[in-house]
Design brief:
Blueprint: E1 4-7, E2 10-13, E3 18-24, E4 32-39, E5 46-51, E6 58-60, E7 68-73, E8 78-83, E9 92-100, E10 113-114, E11 118-123
């Protein structure tokens, strides 16, 4: 399995921005589809964004579309989530996940490797 370590979370006011990073241990990182998910207290983990190995395919949840951007740097084995115009409802623990192959999936169950999460808190 791929080892994933997220960073970049924190406390920000509504309307502000944060950039999350996820560093992967896998040398064949470029063979993995990478996703970001989030989980708020008392709620199920939900899909946020996903990117294929070549950056040719990205997909976002409706709640973040137009505000968040997922990208990756295969040379650095890192995937990013740029979050702009943050809202209090974006408050959650954000997780990076890896899925071997080129097929995009929005399902939590399809990802076998997960990071430990990074907390994002947006104050109103």
């Amino acid at each position: 399995q791929v080892q994933l370590v997220e960073s970049g979370g924190g406390l920000v006011q509504a309307g502000g921005s944060l950039r999350l990073s996820c560093a992967a241990s896998e040398r064949t990182f470029s063979s993995y589809t990478m996703g970001w998910f989030r989980q708020a207290p008392g709620k199920a983990r939900e899909f946020v964004a996903v990117i294929t190995w070549s950056d040719a395919g990205t997909y976002y949840s409706d709640s973040v579309k137009g505000r968040f951007t997922i990208s990756r740097d295969n040379a650095k084995n890192t995937v990013y989530l740029q979050m702009n115009s943050l809202k209090p409802e974006d408050t959650a623990n954000y997780y990076c996940a890896a899925r071997f192959g080129l097929v995009i999936s929005l399902r939590v169950a399809d990802y076998r490797s997960w990071g430990q999460g990074t907390q994002v808190t947006v104050s109103s």
